[in-house]
Amino acid sequence: MQVISIIPKLPPAIDGVGDYALNLARQLHQEFNIQTHFIVGDPDWNGADKIAGFPVSQVSDRSADALLTLLSGDRSSTILLHYVGYGYAKRGCPVWLVDGLQRGQSLFPQRSLVTMFHEVSASGPPWTSTFWLSSLQRNLAARLSRLSDRCITSKQLYAEIIANISRGKHQEVPFLPVFSNIGEPDKVLPLLERQQRLVVFGGVANRTRVYQESQAVLEYICQKLNIQEIWDVGTPTEVKVSAINKIPILKIGQQPAEKVSDILANSVAAFSNYDPDFLAKSTIFAAYCAHRLLPINATGSTSIVDGIEPGKHYWVPNPQENDVDMQAIADNAYSWYQTHNLSVHIQTFDKYLFSNSVMII
Predict the structure, then answer these.
(1) Nearest alpha-carbon partner for 60 in 82, 80, 41, 88
(2) Does the domain formed by 2-176+342-353 have CATH 3.40.50.2000?
(3) Structure pTM?
(4) Which of 22, 74, 282, 286 has the most C-beta neighbours closer than 10 Å?
């Protein structure tokens, strides 16, 4: 069996959606012998024509014709689209992509389209292009939802939106918070057996925000947890901070997934400054939970979102708080993660990719 997987980019580009798609493909092949043929939707992507043993094609330009040319080579395999508007168009409106898929469906109606909505549409203040293009973004997502035979997403809010904009075609849309892109260790130590190390891991923008906006929070964390070192893991930022309240920051740089996994598995806590309502679609938060350390976020949501509750599944530092059971939070985060880990993803995607009926989970 073969799946055609359409993604914005693949490694060596740093792209969370590409990493997600590649890990998914590896596991589908390992467990069900499903072969994936990738189609990269960025004509400027610079990579090999084979990755991890999977063939890779690339659109010559962002046009419906270019996509249709690639899709015409295989007229029967299920298409798995990893959709995030800004991955396929600078302004988040990939008209060419939806047009190409629609034309392909007309030419090859027997072929299924399964869409993983990593995003639906964006929003922003009136002085940004996002505000003025949000309607077009939503219309494209609506068209795509109605073209798709089955849909999956990473957030309950997105599932509700897709059910609404699909005009009844997808009444129940399953949502699976994303899995860890750096692996899931078999053995996870209790916090007392780990190094008193705080990890800051992720993309440049997120880690820059941590050091620019959360220094006071970091100082409190280091004092509260008796942190001896802060390890900064990822592509180097331009931030010049080398210590937090005399606690040294070791800039480890970009590392292979296995090395990052080892670092997290032996650290007591990890920090992020992320929108708390969108933690379910953060592969960084997923990695923290999968490694059963203490996940810390700069701010907390005002409600339970996607099954994630502040104070239960992640710590929101507050100097006014009483004693906090850090191990309980780490355990709760780890348990929450098991409900949608890579194994759960694989079982779900296998059924969705090769099923003619909608499965409700």
Answers:
(1) 41
(2) yes
(3) 0.91
(4) 286
